[in-house]
Write a structure and sequence with these properties.
This protein is mainly β. It has a five-stranded antiparallel β-sheet with strand order 1-8-7-6-5, with no helix packed on it. Strands 4-3-2-25 form a four-stranded antiparallel β-sheet, with no helix packed on it. A hairpin with a 4-residue loop joins β10 and β11. The radius of gyration is 20 Å and the shape is globular.
Length: about 325
């Protein structure tokens, strides 16, 4: 549990967003390219007619060829709205590309920094990304710079970001930071073996434990409480936790099977959907509420969109010459 003092410190950091050139919780900084401290600027874009963002929202979602708007049954789904960032490695170097929801490149990317193959988080507000590996991380700034450092933890298992705040799961704790020197550990090192977290709308889901895992829900960027205790016999079905249908916690396996954690806690191990195409390495999962599709990232196959009936397809394959690392999801 986070104490009141830590929660107050984090709240002040979020309000101030005072960026410093020295990050106390990082050490052994190396700047690439050489330069000074970069201020993270908030970015707000108004979507108006004629802009590319307006093209994602059709005037009428009806797929019929008749003249009415929506008086009969449609068979098509709405366009996808859940986009993602994918980190890659290749020839000792790292790359990170941000993709639109339809799988096309957004034009935002970082390349040729020292390779990191751990979890990735991309923040749409600041257009800053972070990639971690073991006790190291690289901050990919909005101006294209790369800043390397260490976290003070031995491992990094998952990451997410929202509204300028980055969340890192280190196994024994979850830390949150605005990358400006302020940070807070939410569990005071009390987690036993946490490997998954997801953040949406200021709420975070955290899964902890190898056997008889627990799911915690954190609100207000600090107050965490148990939501589903001992929800399964092992963490395999819920470790890759994400916000699924109705905003409920869901998990997925390396084979591409999706489960409702609430249903697992009630004793049901029935799969919600399963992409039966020989997957073994799914590392990150998400849910697109608009198109009603699950997203599965396989470092060997790429990003997969899976329908509720378990059918699906690879929407973003792994580029030639690169190896997939991890992915992060966000709504457009």
């Amino acid at each position: 549990m986070v104490d009141a003092a830590s929660e107050e410190t984090l709240s002040e950091a979020v309000l101030k967003y005072k960026v410093r050139c020295m990050l106390p919780w990082l050490s052994a900084l190396t700047l690439l390219p050489a330069g000074g401290c970069h201020v993270f600027q908030s970015l707000s874009i108004d979507c108006t007619a004629g802009m590319p963002c307006a093209e994602h929202v059709p005037e009428d979602s009806d797929a019929d060829t008749d003249a009415d708007a929506d008086t009969d049954t449609d068979t098509s789904t709405l366009p996808p709205s859940e986009a993602y960032a994918i980190a890659y490695t290749g020839a000792g170097l790292g790359s990170l590309f941000v993709y639109n929801a339809d799988g096309t490149a957004s034009g935002v990317s970082w390349q040729d920094y020292a390779a990191m193959s751990g979890p990735v988080a991309y923040d749409t507000l600041t257009r800053v990304a972070v990639v971690l590996q073991a006790n190291e991380l690289v901050i990919l700034d909005s101006d294209g710079g790369a800043t390397f450092g260490t976290t003070g933890y031995n491992q990094a298992f998952d990451a997410d970001a929202e509204d300028g705040i980055f969340w890192f799961d280190h196994g024994s704790d979850v830390s949150i930071t605005a990358l400006d020197g302020y940070y807070s550990d939410l569990f005071d090192g009390a987690l036993s073996d946490s490997r998954g977290l997801a953040v949406q709308g200021g709420v975070a889901y955290v899964v902890d434990g190898q056997s008889k895992p627990d799911l915690y829900q954190c609100v207000d960027r600090g107050r965490c409480s148990s939501r589903y205790a001992d929800f399964d016999d092992s963490a395999a079905r819920g470790r890759n936790v994400f916000f699924g249908p109705e905003g409920e916690p869901y998990g997925c396996t390396g084979a591409g099977a999706v489960y409702s954690i609430r249903e697992l806690s009630e004793g049901s191990s029935t799969m919600v959907a399963f992409f039966q195409d020989g997957l073994t390495d799914v590392s990150d999962c998400g849910w697109d509420a608009t198109s009603e599709q699950f997203l599965l990232f396989s470092p060997s196959r790429g990003m997969i969109r899976m329908n509720m009936d378990s059918s699906g397809y690879v929407v973003t394959p792994i580029p030639a010459g690169l190896t997939g690392a991890r992915a992060d999801f966000f709504s457009e």
